[in-house]
């Protein structure tokens, strides 16, 4: 069976020359676009964190099938695995930073620290926001400093980590304003653990009760948590993850709908078709046709 999927790029794919530490990349977006344009306008994934700030230019950015119009001082933050593509209608200026999931390993005591940043939730709507005017200068200075540090013959990567973290925390303070009310740490940890389990097991575990058992909570408690914090049931979160992966796979013309149903562990193609149409209002084939247009 054909198993070709959406291209997955790592940072080494995006570096034209080897660097001392290949899990960090900072560039002006115009330079980045010039080097990699042939890849960026096709749907693709990264296995690293991706951060973009636009200063000016026109176009759109599609992240996990949500389309956004590019605006000045707009920020995009993506985690490994999200599918996205760019469509520009004019020259673009701004900044891009890529860093691996292990860039802060052994540097921060909490290895899951980045998961607590509001824009790294994996939900594209959380990862897109506007910078206030009061932060324009401070944030652009930090981007420029990171680019300059990387260009050094022997980059000080620990200093880069500190400045990048400063940048992330500045932006998180702005992005968190969208999260009202603030989520208590204990609840947020449980929710993030549930989301991580879904990402790891959505193909094989479909019932909220099974996830509740893995989290050592009752199904009612898990469901109440999701309803309280997200306004959705635990079952809806599981279903949305399955549908998201189905849509990601449908963008790949080298996989048939039957192969996608098999990949997602559906019993048969007809069950997958009914499931997809019930929640997306179109068949998998129709979704693929719409996307290709």
Automatic annotation (TrEMBL):
Keywords: DNA-binding, Transcription, Transcription regulation. PROSITE patterns: HTH_ARAC_FAMILY_2. InterPro entries: AraC-bd, Homeodomain-like_sf, HTH-like, HTH_AraC, RmlC-like_jellyroll, Tscrpt_reg_AraC-type_HTH. It comes from the Bacteria. Pfam families: AraC_binding, HTH_18. Residues 192-290 form the HTH araC/xylS-type domain. This is AraC family transcriptional regulator. It comes from Terrimonas rubra.
